[in-house]
Amino acid sequence: MLWLLLPTLLLVYLLYRALRPRPRAWAGVWLWRKGKGQRFRPRLDLRLLLLLLAASLLVLALDDPPLGPSPLVLVVDASASMAAKEGAKTRLDLAKERLLPLLERAPEAVLVRAGETPEAHGPAPGVALKGRLLALEAGDPRADLEGAMALGRRLLEAPVVVATDGPPPEGAEGYIGVGSPRENLGLVAVERGFLALGNSASRPLTARVEAGGRVWQVGVPARGFARLEGLPPTFSARLLGEDALALDDGAAFGLKRLGADYPRLPALERLFALLGVGPGDEVRVRLGVPAGAPETPTLFLAPAAGPPTPVLLTALHPLLEGVALLGESLPPPPKPQGPWKPLAEGEGGVGLLYAAEKGLYLPPLAAIQDQPFFPLLVYNFLKPYREVRTGLLAPEETLLPTPRESFLPKAPGGGGRWLALFAALVLILEALLFQRR
Fold first, then answer.
1. How far from 399 is each of 207, 225, 242, CA to CA, in Å?
2. pLDDT tens column, 379-414
């Protein structure tokens, strides 16, 4: 509303001059002679000054300026892509430069580092968090921006400003986008004898990879991925050359020996000896019905079951990879409690096998220990806990997200009511001093 200030003041001045008393001709020549030798100085028109002041205050009241700086929640993306080079600096350095003035002005603030697990500092005066901001480092495989925003709001009810190299998350009152398109190659996935690469550039690039004791050349399409197969079962790999991000240039795949806590039953001892699993507590085997989601990887074997039922339906699930169940007959175990979902169903939708996060629930051991699918099911269950992958980031980090246009939260008003009150007091003063007689 400030563009109204000049025309409003001009209008008040013109109206005031138009309403001034008209000059009258009179014959007091002696007055002219009296002041002939003196310098005439214009007097200060207090009434006009008060009217101009009141008009200025009313225009400022329409703009409703904030009474002062407001509290803020600052969320800083600490994922690996924020370590990408932008000239002599990184994307995180650019974010710090733009966030620092906001933080120093904030009377109260919360600073949240958005990595895989959000970390918060504050509430505290913004100046007190300056050192925390400057000490932030990027490198997490991914950033949980939504979780970081929720954590900041729980600690302080204030507008949230997110600094990231990706698009603004939904619900953010402010957004600072940092970064520019950069060419980057990275390792995005490893499996047994397999490697995948990503390319953030807008043109195809050729990656030189040292893996399995030799150097490979792999063409990677623009903003896409490519695979490299024929590697040893376990290997380490490294990209040769320099690009925008160094954190995704190395990765490795290996297998570790698992330890299991299980009942000393002959069938289980033979199975775990076959799979190379020794005693330990990384995986558990329990005889019983699950009463909820397991906290540690657990294989449940039902203590009893009903009569065998043909398998009519199986789910698409990694645990059933290579497992042929259609046509088999399995005894349905008691239904588990909690977030367990059937992997195989019989007639009437009765569950025969169940899975949950970190859990597998099977019929009694005596009913399945001689079936050919049993070792494969257990192998698929143990597979994620035997494999060791190092050096990997989320694929979107290697592709280096591109930011959008930044915006900041609108400063809350509150000063308009006081300016309007001050304008009314000025007008009352003008009326009292210059009321018409």
1. 14, 10, 15
2. 999 988 888 888 888 888 888 888 989 888 876 666
Burial of 194 (0-12, 13-18, 19+ CB in 10 A): middle
Arithmetic mean of pLDDT over the chain:
86
Listed residue (48, 56, 50, 101) closest to 74, CA to CA: 101
Q: What is the pLDDT of residue 300?
A: 92
Distance (Å, whole) CA 311 – CA 330: 7
| Contact between residue 203 and residue 223 where contact means Cβ atoms under 8 Å apart | no
Rg over CA atoms, the chain: 37
C-beta atoms surrounding 316 within 10 Å: 7
CA angle 204, 206, 212 (to 5 degrees): 140
Which has more pLDDT, 23 or 341?
A: 341
309 within 8 A of 331, measured Cβ to Cβ: yes
Question: How many CA within 13 A on the CB side of residue 78?
Answer: 22
Q: In the chain, what is the greatest distance between 2 CA atoms, to the nearest angstrom? A: 134
pLDDT above 50 for 437: no
pLDDT tens profile 32-83:
666 555 555 556 778 778 788 888 878 877 776 666 678 899 999 999 999 9
Find tokens 């197969």 and name the residue.
229
- Cα separation, 44 vs 50, in Å, equals 11
Token pair of 44 as six digits:
């200060």
